[in-house]
Fold this protein.
Amino acid sequence: MSDTYEPETPLLDRRTAFDDRSRAYPVRPHVGGVTRTTVLHDVPEPLPLNQRTEGACVGFGWSAQLAVGPIHNPTDNVYAQDYYRSAVHVDRAAGRYWAVGASVLAGAQVARRRKVITGYRWAFGIDDVIDTLVVKGPVLLGLNWYDSMYRTRPDGRVRVDGSIVGGHCILATGYIHLHPRWGGSWIEWVNSWGPTYGVDGKGYIRATDLGDLLQQSGEACIADEVQPRRPEPNRRRALPGVTSTGSPA
């Protein structure tokens, strides 16, 4: 893949809205005692979605989250746009009047109001995110976005550098415990900018970098019902930098 992101640059319109009551709904009690190992979850069609230039990432991120678990909520770009508009309505009803954009919290409330989930929980920090990925399923992230993150390296690796250019909502879909070529632990995510982002719409960020982003007013949420359909062992062999036999390229 190219190391540049060619389509129109999308707006970055994830807005921050935190509720102290969220602290009462941690994911940690449900993911304790995990043995960390590489887990790459199924990324079903029609992911990756494509928000194009719309600042609708919360609608697209939540639509992706609802598509990956046993909910199997049907989704496409039109559905995700409608979901975004519903999240904007929820934010405005709560007194959050942004010209554009929506909060991850409003996106969670839309899912519950539509009765496609019964509730949602929060991961507080990188350890919660990793353990949730390993034992439960994909995790929705709300993060500061740096200008270097618009484009990945040819193998999909994300660099966190430069200036903050906005906020983005994106779905983490896997954890790589120790990459045989890159070294260290990595988080896989699927973006909502179509298949030309990264490698087939997916990027890979070092776990320590994601941890830093979470500390910068970041957030991580998962629907109660989201469980992996099944980890995809064949995707390990297809990781960038790894041959079909699972050895470093």
